[in-house]
Amino acid sequence: MKFISTRGKSQAQNAAEAIVKGLADDGGLFVPETFPDVEDSLESMLAMDYAERACFVLKQYLTEYDEKELLDACKKAYGKFEDNDAAPVVKLDEKLFILELFHGPTLAFKDIALTLLPYLLRKGCDISGIKEEVLILVATSGDTGKAALEGFKDAEGIKINVFFPSEGVSDMQKLQMCTQEGENVNVVAVKGNFDDCQTAVKNIFSSKEINAKLKENGVILSSANSINFGRLAPQIAYYFSAYLDLVASKEIELGDKIDFVVPTGNFGNILAGYYAKQMGLPINKLVCASNSNNVLTEFFAEGVYDANREFYKTMSPSMDILVSSNLERLIFEMSGRNTDLTESRMADLKKKGKYSITEEEKNDISEVFFADYTEEEDCLETISAVFEEYGYVCDPHTAVAVSVADAYVGYTGADAPTVILSTASPYKFSQNVLKAITGKTTKDAFNAADRLYEQTATPIPENITALKTKEKRFNEVIEKTQTVDAIMRFIGK
Ligand SMILES: *Cc1c(COP(=O)(O)O)cnc(C)c1O
Fold this sequence. Notes:
Blueprint: E1 2-5, E2 13-14, H1 15-21, E3 30-32, H2 42-45, H3 50-61, H4 67-78, E4 89-93, E5 96-100, H5 110-114, H6 117-127, E6 133-139, H7 143-152, E7 158-165, H8 171-178, E8 185-190, H9 194-206, H10 208-216, E9 219-222, H11 229-248, E10 258-263, H12 268-278, E11 283-290, H13 295-302, E12 304-306, H14 327-334, H15 339-352, E13 354-356, H16 359-368, E14 369-373, H17 376-390, H18 396-412, E15 418-422, H19 430-438, H20 445-456, H21 462-465, E16 477-478, H22 483-490
Parallel strand pairs: 5-15, 6-7, 6-9, 7-8, 8-16, 10-11, 10-15, 11-14
Antiparallel strand pairs: 1-2, 1-3, 4-5, 12-13
């Protein structure tokens, strides 16, 4: 399978190259030349376990990867999840289901892609004849950093360096990163905010001088961020898996259409659902749920994407995003794969922070998508209401989706079975969840976890408890001008 750029100015690449490069040379995103149609294979996928289903979906795109090896890699990656099931479906009532994507090593849905990406990347280098060691650079506001560290720890031929803002992540997130194990990892706090970290990383990527110096030392740079097709592809699989699980448990019949509701930030998760639909999965609507940073809600309603707005820090921080990078892939499809139009819209976004689509495109999008958002107060109320009604404890990101799912049914009278994607363990955000359910607050995240357990009897994940006693390995705090030195020290130069 070949991958083309959404902006049409660079050459098509195979999957291995697309994954190693991350971004096309013209600044566009890699998209598959066509969408493989697997509708006729759904029945045969019923009997497969999660790793086999994932491998089946991935091999449609990663045609140069060895299938048996790919299956082994999927088994290894998804063997790291609780009960060997990366994506269990929980039934709340007759038509409402939760797809739990947080049973991996770092308790957030990013584990699903980041447990597999090291294999996809290293193998991609081998296929492309790249012999150098790969250095993954990550700037993180919390969840991605930990999931990438855990995914890449002790991966052969790969090193990973994470920069995080020294005062910009939660206590639990900081602890998760600073206790990271592995011989090939480095974690550095930067005095500044997330943007400072991100700018530092971007400057390093685009510096010819630094790249040349690294190459002299046998190192090339790569990234693990969510616009990489290697992040997107593994996410397509859980849409299939959830659907097939519902068929297998006789909740629906093969061919019935269902809705998915997705708590959305960078638009990677929900875009994977759109790709699943393009591949023939019977999806009715994809519902895009945002928090107070509701730029996407406005875009779907008005056809104007406008990032010039106030930025809110919410209790669902992984969705606090004003520029949703993966949306470029959707507007590319909706424009009839018009690369010139996509390029000019992205140029507008860069220059003016804003672009618009046509009325016709907007209408086409609403055939497939519905969008709405949830304010902070409603998010807390939803956590509490879901616990009252179903005895189910959800995290703030998931609560945003549950609340939007309610609104969606209210507005549209939709009656298809609905699957809500749950993206994080409630114990990752124990203080806010405790506050929602009991009205009590505490500054200590572990104390909040213990009290949440007493109140709800929902088991505390082992990886949270283990954090209490883990050794802190990384304490370095640097100025933002010292990031290059930190990297050179890390690679031993
Ligand atoms: C990253 C993340 C999201 C947003 O996913 P996107 O693919 O960026 O839309 C939602 N919830 C949690 C917990 C996350 O970590």
